[in-house]
């Protein structure tokens, strides 16, 4: 009987730890942050439409290895920018359309090329993600 009680106590402790870990992770994000999306091993979040969402993204940007901003010719905020990230060998590791002027991406350390296209204007930037560093890139498009 005592062995059964110990097993149940251990199982209960494990479940409680998992619940607290998952809950803690969810609460670590700023209020107003859009949902995190994943593609393979890459996590990203995109948005910034509205004051609260933009503030949440700017607040959390230092916790993400790569942050990007998308702007028009007169510093207008842009959404619907097609983003593609390739590793140093040219393999695509992520592609998504931005849901606002900001995109935060968790990438493993390494060298990447970020391609961003808004309407007919396509640009690219080389980025180097360090182990615990933060890389920030901006794209300013010449089309409205």
From TrEMBL:
Supply the alphabetized keyword list. Answer: Signal
Lineage of the source organism? Bacteria, Pseudomonadati, Pseudomonadota, Betaproteobacteria, Burkholderiales
GO terms of molecular function: carbohydrate binding
Q: What is this protein called?
A: Carboxypeptidase regulatory-like domain-containing protein
The answer, when asked if Cytoplasm is one of the entry's keywords, is no
Q: Please state the span of the N-terminal signal peptide per the UniProt entry.
A: 1-28
Q: Which InterPro entries match?
A: Carb-bd-like_fold
